[in-house]
Amino acid sequence: MAKIGIYGSSFDPITNVHLWTASTVAHRCKLDKVIFLPCSNKRKDKEIKTENTHRWDMLQLAIAKDERFIANSYEMEQEGWNIYTYDTMKYFREQNPNDDIHFIMGADLLVDIGAGLWKNGEALVDENKFIVMARHGIDMLSTISRSPILRNHDDGRFHLIDKGLAMEISSTYIREEFAMGGEPKYLLPSACYDYIKEHNLYQK
Ligand SMILES: Nc1ncnc2c1ncn2[C@@H]1O[C@H](COP(=O)(O)OP(=O)(O)OP(=O)(O)O)[C@@H](O)[C@H]1O
Ligand SMILES: O=C(O)c1ccc[n+]([C@@H]2O[C@H](COP(=O)([O-])O)[C@@H](O)[C@H]2O)c1
């Protein structure tokens, strides 16, 4: 039985914090694999202007040298965002019935799920396990205890991780820097930086 973490994001672009958090979680939770799962750009709740192919290619460049990391295009291949994390996790559990599968996310998403903002949120919590990474200003224990959706399933399925550093690099910041003539060079893998320059991405 393999222990697998699924890390969902738009990865627009993937940043060094995505890689560092994935690596930290893999090490601390003894994961055999982290699956990076970029969402579709047809997603309805978040505008993603960068074509799937670019986000996918940058992701491949970023994870190429780490054998714990793989990318999966399941959500990108879906028609629109008819697919939610609930469906995705169901799909991965069915594909890997002998494995121990966890959804990796920041505590900001735990707050959203607890507030009932996710599709089929209660069933999602009921049927899955989660690795939740601390985010600055969010008390994960009280987030769970304040939400009936979360606290009534708090039987060990939430593995709460405080990474030790509140390092913040957002994809938004990197996009803004490219658009405004800034220099985000060391905030993302150098191969991704070069790819963005070569393809003229994130220009105004
Ligand atoms: N510094 C961080 N610490 C812990 N989790 C993080 C951190 N940054 C992002 N995450 C988590 O990674 C996942 C994907 O986040 P996402 O890619 O949307 O962040 P982002 O880089 O801020 O992107 P954008 O700026 O485009 O919204 C989420 O679960 C989020 O909580
Ligand atoms: O299923 C949902 O309702 C849902 C709502 C918001 C976000 N998600 C998932 O959460 C992950 C991170 O999302 P985001 O908004 O931080 O890019 C990504 O895998 C999304 O598909 C899922």
Automatic annotation (TrEMBL):
It catalyses: nicotinate beta-D-ribonucleotide + ATP + H(+) = deamido-NAD(+) + diphosphate. Its EC number is 2.7.7.18. The keyword Kinase does not apply. InterPro entries: Cyt_trans-like, NadD/NMNAT, Rossmann-like_a/b/a_fold. One of its GO terms (molecular function) is nicotinate-nucleotide adenylyltransferase activity. HAMAP family: NaMN_adenylyltr. This is Probable nicotinate-nucleotide adenylyltransferase. It comes from Lysinibacillus xylanilyticus. The gene is nadD.
